[in-house]
# Entry
Amino acid sequence: MQNRPDPDELLKHVESEETGRGKLKIFLGYVAGVGKTYAMLEAAHQRKEQGLDVVVGYIETHKRAETEELVTGLEVLPRKQIEYHNVTLPEMDVDAVLKRRPKLVLVDEFAHTNAPGSRHPKRFQDVAEILDAGIDVYTTLNIQHLESLNDVVAQVTGIIVRETIPDRVIDEASEIEVIDLPPDELLTRLQEGKVYIPEQASRAIDKFFRKGNLTALREMSLRRAAERVDDQMRSYMQTRAISGPWGASERLLVCISPSPLAEKLIRTTRRLADELNAEWIAVYVEVASKPENNPANRERIGRTLQLAEELGAKSITLSERSIQEAVLDYARKNNITKVVIGKPLKPRWQEIVTGSVVDQLIYASGDIDVYVISARTELNKPIIPSDWQPHQPIGRYLLSLGLVALSTLLGILVRGDLEPANLVMLYLASVVISAIFLGRGPSLLAAVAGVLAFDFFLVPPYLTLAVSDTQYIVTFGMLFIVSLVISSLTAQGREQAEAAIRRESQTNALYNLGRDLTSATDLNNVADIVISHIGQAFGREVVIFLPENGRIHPFASSPNYQPDENELAVAAWTFDHDQPAGRGTDTLPAASIRCVPLRTSNGMVGVLGVHPKESGSLLTPEQRQTLDAFTNQAALAVERASLAEQAHQTELLQATEKLQSALLNSISHDLRTPLVSITGALTSLDEQSESLDDENRRSLIVTAREEADRLNRLVGNLLSMTRIESGAIKIHSEPDDIQDAIGTALEQLGKRLGRHGIQVNIPVDFPLVPMDFTLMVQVIVNVLENAVKYSPENSLIEISAQLMDKKARLQIFDRGVGIPAEDLPRIFDKFYRVQRPENVSGTGLGLSISKGIVDVHHGIIYASARTGGGTVITIELPLDEEYSQ
Amino acid sequence: MSEAGQRVLVVDDEAPIRRYLRAALNAQGFTIFESANGQEALNAVIANRPDIIILDLGLPDIDGIEVTRQLREWSQTPIIVLSVRESEQDKIAALDAGADDYLTKPFGTGELMARMRVVMRRQTSKPDEPILQVDELKMDLSRRVVTIRDEEISLTPTEYDILRLLMQNAGKVITHHHLLRQVWGTAYESEMHILRVNISNLRRKIEPDPSRPHYLLTEPGVGYRLKVL
# Structure
């Protein structure tokens, strides 16, 4: 091994390849008092001298002078005080760290368990969040807190360490520095009082700080660090394709059961896998005919699989007819070389009767090694077999006895007419009925009771268990066996059916969700469907959070439920970290809501929150799986709806752009025309004033003035149009005099009316009409202007008002050129102009502005042909005040 | 009346508008002072003692309404404000703050001269003339008699009060609120419909064609004005 690379080089190589995430350095010791915190602080000072931004996130100096001295000179972030049962517990303030954003933060006691109510249950999870934010972390850890060594430590020292951290966290560290101190020196330090011992632990100390213990722990920590260097070395050589001493990679499969011993099995396998440098997988097989119904057991299986994942395994659940078939089938397909299984806990006789999984596995394993791991029996807690339900209501057993009694009664009535062999069928019937409707236990009782009753009542001599004919012994035997078989088969069928029904109902729920989602048209629709389906399937309140401008906000939720501030914070965390959070997870477990990311292949689209209606109820692992399936569907639907909405918005935008360019074309033409006349007239007056006679001069001035007026009106119209289009128009509706509005409009038109005759017919007692006076004047001006424009001089324009049912109707009649019938509905469109008279100018905005104004009054405006030639414009305004508000 | 030598302060941040006003008003014999913003205007009023102020509402520093309010604390110089279309609220605010009249941009020179004449005449007129006359509409305050083309017309006391207020301020716009306050009292300030019904009735009595008023003009969104010829 001459070419063995320098471990430091390797570490640098590893560091340099990491990107974005902060780097974690662990100061690893084998016991309290070796000087981890001291070493960490020293290292921090060095980094600070190098110019790094270093702050203290959390340090426990235990009032030791030399340690405290080292803290001075470093910036210490204030701690967060968490109230719990009237006690304030100081914790690291993660948010303060994230806000302060140093380059490096010191966090003591990596394995610390946070006070309840903190964001994460464990400090290493806080650290993970800090690392994710790109901040480097120095932390300290004692070897006994390592999950996989937990039981070994307990065995060696007799002390069970409660605060543990998963091994993968250590694996993720960029650097581990072992802080070593020979046990003898440590013991001297201890005697000198230099080691901090918590008071409550002082009794354990004598037991713990024995030289033997210390040596064992020291070995563990050194070995662990060495293993790690080895790992890095290996992976380096692998990435460089340097051939090495490693063999074909091993793959381990560990089979777990609901037993509490499964955790030990997992830990053992992890150590085995470490030693073999093998990949490992934890599997739980659900036997299809005997699904696990006990919620406690299901919960334990979920926890065990989770532990396996924390220790670096992949975990799967299989559903098959038999355990050994499932395991071996999976093993062969996935190149598993070793299967790990626990020693059976059942008594030997039971194994002979029901068969032993271990035996069967070994028998059928072929070239796969099978490791059978023992368990210490004192850890053995009573296991509740899944299919035995001790709290079966007693009524069911009584009912099955009743069935037997009924069969007996019938038998007594007909026992003279029928052969006893036929009477047996009555009992079989009662056994079958019990098995179907009452379950396994009652049907077994019916079988036993049936045999006894048959003998006692129906086999001569009656009313005694003695039999006259020995061949009845065979009948009894057969009756008993057949009853057992039938009851077992029927009960099994029943249980399978129940399991199938449960699965089917889930599948159905999922199918229904999918079906309803396909018919959903928009995001609101999708949200409502998701919320109602998930709410129904899980009996929970549901909320959907969607991002807007990078922040999450509740989009829709179950009726009568609104997420509060805390729940919103959970959702925000989920969104920021793309991980489930809240109830039943590792992050903010004290929250009342469980948030899961709505994720598709394109990324996060939102967050789904489920909130139990009553506190205390957790989702079973099975429900969680189903929820995941629901979530996937929901995410896809939300994404689809969001995309559709975006597409729609784009379409709208395009339409608007098209309209805008049309508007610009029209406007630039219409604005320029009067400017041409004005500029022309003024330049003539300026430059050629001598050659102009009075009449021409006068004509130029009038032209310029009229065109300026026109320009002013055009600008006014454009402004009005913009205000109407943008929805910025506000109406101040008040009852007002319609005659006044007409008068004001006529006054404003002034000379523009030309030589047209105007006739106004308004009933004397006409009521006030709710309107925005100024805007309505504009409507009348625009309509009148149009009438003047399109009708010959000296013709009469009539204006009349009538009272209708809850409406005021204003009509303007002209004797103009009229509008072709097919154009009548279009004249209120923007830029529409009837193309007939050549000399008519204007933008064609007037009528569309009028329509816009009448619309905001909740009124209607329309054009119709006038009998005898010309056009009628009718405006109807609601009289009832509430319609015009 | 003589306009020669009257001093006009023009306040507008747009130089072309000031230039146009200078030319137009100079031709009429006025002496012109100019200010480009509100602060300058306040100083100019002290320095130049104008006889009338033409004040744009959209000034870059102090709002024209605020300038009016500050001026009115110590000066009674007539103020005509200039504003753009669709800002009725500003017009009302300026009138409430003490402006004498307003003009909507763009405006003709003739219109401006007419308004100036009205506010300056009022400044010099005796307040207790017993007989008011506009065209063929006459009001004898001492006898409480109103005649049109020398024919006496009968008005309700409210209609009489409205007409008197308008005639005493002939040519000047009177806001809805001012009319309501003066005629009915402050409690009725928001009872706009009472005013409208009364104006409508008044028009039927004094106007030859109520649909095309000759005397009693509506200033949309602001109030009413009795037309002077």
About this structure: Chain B is about 40% helix and 20% strand. The mean pLDDT of chain B is 88.
